[in-house]
Amino acid sequence: MMKKSRRKASPIDQERLLASCDATKTIYQYFVSNPGNNAKKCASDLGFQIGRVYNHIAKLRDAALLTLREERDYGRTTAYYSAVNMQASTKQEDGTHSTRTHKQDDGNSLCGLFQYKSFNTTLTESRELADPLPLWKTFWYEGEICCLFGDTGTGKSILTVQIAKEIAESKKILYFDFELSEKQFEMRYKDTDGTLCKFPDNLIRVEIDLDRVELHDYETRLIEGIEKDALAMGVDTLVIDNITWLCSNMEDGDLAGKLMMKLIRMKKRHNWSILVLAHTPKRDAQKPISQNDLAGSKRVLNFLDSAFSIGFSEWSVDIRYIKQIKSRFGRIIYGADNVISAEVKKDGAFLYFDEIGNAKENDHLNKKRATTAKQDESIKTEPKADMLARQLFTKLLSGGKSLTNGELEKQSELSHSTFNNRLNRAKAMKIISLNPETSCYSLTST
Which of 275, 189, 208 is nearest to 237 (CA)? Predict the structure, then answer.
């Protein structure tokens, strides 16, 4: 049976392809100047990620702008590419066979949605790809869409900034901060003397310019803007805080699925690494965290490559635990029997999670206390609002400190309304007392 030849793209299609993307044109020109090189050498010489090079090579081959030659050496097949002159190429060269055929010459057209490769070709080309490196422990790897979720107040943004800061020591990263204002961010990352935290220059914070946001189809515009700007800046690692800005109704399975497909398309098209933050709905804090605790449609987790979560601990108001929920690349190391225990601390101007060891999730939940509370109705678990107020003012007024209302609010790094809510709770519980002579608050003797 004769092999079907690759469909020859028209010169207009070829010109349009080369004009559509600078990277495609750059890779084509590379093989014009360096015929017979492989994708790995191209990626190394141009400074591109190998996955990105393969994506553009596939487009150039489909447009009959590259020819393929394969050599087998020591049991390993390597693909080499050479550029085809646009003006001179009027027909398909003999011996060139596509593994990604979109249309057949007999008039029976394929739908065009799928890409076809034999298992052997898939393994051969993938073997040239470097294994993805961990971006943060085993929670998030290169080329993955990962999600960090947790209840309000657990410190998701604090941990994410810490992760981004580590990554930025070696590569540029865009942090799309849709939560904090510039002033709120500044107050979080400065010490009591006003000294600001020093971050790597590779860490770029991005805010939405609300004056330019159009309500019509703004979610689609946001995603398109993220892709366009990341490409323009040459960045392949993104953090999005948080996902609800990209889809206002995550409970709708169809809308959530469409959002995830857009993110997956960006990831595969550019070989990007994306970390998104998400909330949890109201949940029983005495129960272990599960995949069902991710806010929104259950479809979302199916699309994710990896996911992890932060939970409150009964050990202390400053203690959290970090649990691995899903991992496609490898086995789950930090599951229920080996969660990371960490304390939220501030070292100078830097707010971060200080790891203090590993433990079982049940140890943090303190189920014995919960069982006792059910048996004795007189024992009540402290409401979360009271716990947060106690945590805040115990920290700010420790060591016999005495501060005014304004000083407390400034150091709390909270919004005005949130601070006042916690101040009123603390006064109602008589955690703090006001000295009328100095107008300063201090911890009560009890």
Answer: 275
Nearest Cα residue to 396 out of 423, 375, 417: 423
Tell me the DSSP string of 73-124. ETTEEEEEEEE--TTT--SPPTT---SS--B-TTS-B--SS-----HHHHHH
CA angle 438, 441, 446 (to 5 degrees): 125
Global model pTM greater than 0.85: no
Separation of alpha carbons 128 and 355, rounded Å: 37
Looking at the structure, do residues 140 and 123 belong to the same domain, yes or no? no
Phi, psi of 20, deg, nearest 5: -80, -25
User: Where is pLDDT greater, at 244 or 144?
Assistant: 144
Task: Select from 101, 127, 153 the last residue of a domain.
Answer: 127
Could you please report the per-residue DSSP string of 20-61? Answer: H-HHHHHHHHHHHHSTTEEHHHHHHHHT--HHHHHHHHHHHH
| Residue whose C-alpha is closest to residue 55's, from 278, 347, 266, 294 | 266
Contact 52, 40 (CB under 8 A): no
Across-strand partners of 276?
147, 240
**Mean pLDDT across 22-38:** 88
Structure-token match 């003006």, residue found: 87
238 & 188 share domain: yes
Segment holding 411, helix H or strand E:
helix 405-412
**Same domain, yes or no: 118 and 149:** no
Domain that holds residue 326: 134-367
In this prediction, residue 4 carries a pLDDT of 41
148 and 278 in a single domain? The answer is yes
**What is the residue type of 267?**
K
**CA R_g for the chain:** 27
Classify residue 2: in a domain, yes or no: no
